Amino acid sequence: HLSILGVDISSEAISLAEMNREWNIKIGKLKPIAHEQMKFIVGDVLDKKFALLGNWDIMISNPPYISPRGFNTETSRSVRNYEPRLALVPAAHDSETTAFGGSRGDLFYPRLLELANEAGVQLLLMEIDGHHQASRVRNMVLDTKAWDGCNVWLDDLCSLRSNLEAESVSATGERSDIIPRVGKGRERAIICWKGEGGARLELGGAYS
């Protein structure tokens, strides 16, 4: 049984996702049962009252992860002019300074890890940008002591084969400046697994 839940703080983004679902059903890319299998809701995951009801096997998140400074100095003009800032830069939050040292770009990751734990997630993929953020988020993962392993995925996953046992990061292990990485290019995502999550990665070909 397949169930997919999409969550976004933007009602416009949710409406667009629903329109895409209906269009793909109409042209035969999705079966009509997708009406029941794919749901989309408006929600603020940073709100402590927000919760993912029930258990979920996999969580995938592309949160806002660019700092205000990075948005102004590192993004292209087209991104600054046409991409919604809300989707790129986390809004200021009460816990930002105390919990995250003022690094607003990292604001979502501890909350995503908390939600994943509450929902029994066994495979968690979070988009990040670059070596420094990859290192910070990896350390957040290790601090939870809840995951069997954690790797960094690069832009091109088809380039290199990674041995799951040799290159995984033990959630109880010590930190290291050497971050296990899979692929070639720039750091793009953190992948964490536990339980059957590691087997899902192998079955899906991520390590073959």
Could you explain how this protein is built, in words?
The chain has 208 residues and is α/β, with parallel strands linked by helices. The protein is 36% helix and 19% strand. The chain has helices at 11-26, 34-37, 68-73, 77-82, 96-100, 108-118, 130-144, 164-167, 197-204; strands at residues 4-8, 38-42, 58-61, 123-127, 149-156, 181-182, 184-193. Strands 3-4-7-5-6 form a 5-stranded mixed β-sheet, with helices on both faces. Helix 8 links the parallel strand 5 and strand 6. The longest helix has 16 residues, at 11-26. Mean pLDDT is 80; it is low at 95-102 and 160-173.
Shape: globular
| Rg value | 18 Å
* H and E string: EHHEEHHHHEHEHEEH
Helix content: 25-40%
For the biggest β-sheet, the strand order reads: 3-4-7-5-6
Biggest β-sheet description? 5 strands, mixed
**How many runs of DSSP E, i.e. beta strands?**
7
Residue stretches low in confidence (pLDDT < 50, at least 5 long) are 95-102, 160-173
How widely separated are the two ends? 26 Å
Strand content: 15-25%
Which structural class fits the helix and strand makeup?
alpha/beta
Q: With helices defined by DSSP (H or I, 4 residues minimum), what is the helix count?
A: 9
Mean pLDDT: 80
